[in-house]
From TrEMBL:
This is Uncharacterized protein. It comes from the Eukaryota.
Length: 328
C-alpha cells in the first residue's frame, strides 16, 4: 500500500503563471505592430515570404510594405502592383478585427476567461466574435489530441492511476444534482502535474454491463500501473490482469490516521477541473461533449497553454493549407 503515498503530495497547478505571456503582451502595445508581425512571422502564424500568382509576374517575390490599414502592413507585387493581406492563408484571416484583438482573445481563451469578459483597449470585444475565435482554439486542441492518440495512453510501471465516475463517484464532496443526463468515466494519471486526464461519456445503465468499461480501461491504461478505483467500479476491476496493484478509494482513505477525509480532499483537488467540465457538458450534444473532453485533455497536458496553442495553431493550418491566395 505504500506506493499510494505520492497522492498526498500532489498539488493543483491550474493557477500557474504562463511566462510565455510575459513575452507576448508587450508586443501588443501601440507602436509595436512591426515587432508583433515579426514575431508572428517567426513562429509561422503569418507568412514570412510570398510570391505573386499573376502569370505575367513569373513568380516574383512580394514586398512587405507599410500601409494605412488596420494591419499596418500588406504584401505588394513590385511588377503588377497588386496587393495581398498579410493574413492570407493564416488563422487570422477569418476574423474582422485587429490582429492585436485576435491575439488578446487567444490569450483570454488560454486563461479561461468568459467570452463576455474579454477586453481589448479598455473596451469589451463583441461576444459573437470572441466565441468564433474561442471555437477555433477548441477546434485546434481537438485536432491535436485526435492526431496524437498516444497521449491518451496513461500510466505504466510505478504510476498511480485514479479511476472514477461522475456524478456517482468520489470526485467531489460537494452535493450535486441527481438529474444529470450524462455519466462520465474519468481516468487521471498522477505521474504528471497537473494530472493527465482522459474522460468519456458512458450509458446511464452502466450498472447492467461493466464489460465496456473494463475493455475501455484496458485499452487506455498501460500494464504495471497501480489503480485507485472508485467503490462502485472496484468489485468489477479488482482482478484486472497486468496491473501492479488495484485498491479502492475506501482502502486509500483507511490509511489516513489524523483526518479521515485527507485522501478524499486530495482526490477532490486533483479532479477539480475535470468536475467543472463534467458539469459543463451536461447540456451539450454528443459532438460538443467529445470536443470539450478533448480540450480538457489538451489543457492538462499543456499547462503553459499560450506557448503550445500558438504552435498547434500553426501546425493545424499547415496541415490544412488548402485556402486560395487572393490578390487585390
Amino acid at each position: 500500500m505504500e506506493c499510494v503515498a505520492p497522492l498526498e503530495s500532489l498539488k493543483s497547478t491550474q493557477g500557474a503563471q504562463d511566462n510565455f505571456q510575459d513575452f507576448i503582451r508587450p508586443l501588443l502595445l501601440e507602436g509595436r505592430e512591426a515587432e508583433l508581425c515579426d514575431w508572428m512571422k517567426d513562429i509561422g502564424l503569418l507568412q514570412s515570404s510570398l510570391k505573386c500568382i499573376t502569370p505575367s509576374c513569373n513568380g516574383s517575390s512580394l514586398q512587405w510594405k507599410k500601409a494605412r490599414i488596420i494591419d499596418k502592413f500588406h504584401w505588394i507585387c513590385s511588377e503588377c502592383k497588386k496587393k495581398m493581406s498579410i493574413r492570407s492563408g493564416s488563422f487570422l484571416e477569418d476574423f474582422q478585427c485587429s490582429m492585436k484583438g485576435i491575439i488578446e482573445t487567444v490569450l483570454a481563451w488560454c486563461d479561461g476567461i468568459s467570452p463576455d469578459d474579454v477586453i481589448v483597449d479598455g473596451k469589451p470585444l463583441k461576444t459573437s466574435l470572441v466565441k468564433r475565435i474561442y471555437n477555433q482554439c477548441t477546434n485546434v486542441t481537438d485536432w491535436y489530441i485526435q492526431r496524437h492518440p498516444e497521449l491518451s495512453q496513461l500510466g505504466g510501471e510505478n504510476c498511480v492511476i485514479l479511476i472514477d465516475l461522475y456524478p456517482d463517484g468520489c470526485m467531489t464532496t460537494a452535493p450535486h444534482n441527481n438529474n444529470y443526463s450524462k455519466q462520465l468515466l474519468c481516468i487521471a494519471d498522477t505521474a504528471y502535474m497537473p494530472a493527465r486526464i482522459w474522460a468519456q461519456v458512458f450509458d446511464q445503465d452502466l450498472h447492467k454491463d461493466y464489460s465496456k468499461v473494463i475493455a475501455c480501461l484496458q485499452s487506455r491504461i498501460r500494464p504495471g500501473s497501480l489503480l485507485v478505483v472508485t467503490p462502485r467500479l472496484f468489485p468489477h476491476l479488482r482482478y484486472t490482469e497486468g496491473m501492479a496493484e488495484i485498491i479502492s478509494v475506501e482502502a486509500l482513505m483507511s490509511l489516513d490516521t489524523d483526518d479521515y477525509q485527507r485522501s478524499l480532499k486530495n482526490l477532490e483537488t486533483i479532479w477539480a477541473t475535470t468536475v467543472s467540465v463534467c458539469q459543463e457538458v451536461q447540456q451539450m450534444n454528443s459532438s460538443e461533449t467529445n470536443q470539450m473532453l478533448r480540450e480538457l485533455q489538451w489543457r492538462q497536458i499543456f499547462p503553459s497553454h499560450a506557448k503550445y496553442l500558438f504552435q498547434h495553431i500553426v501546425e493545424h493550418y499547415k496541415s490544412n493549407k488548402n485556402s486560395p491566395i487572393h490578390l487585390t
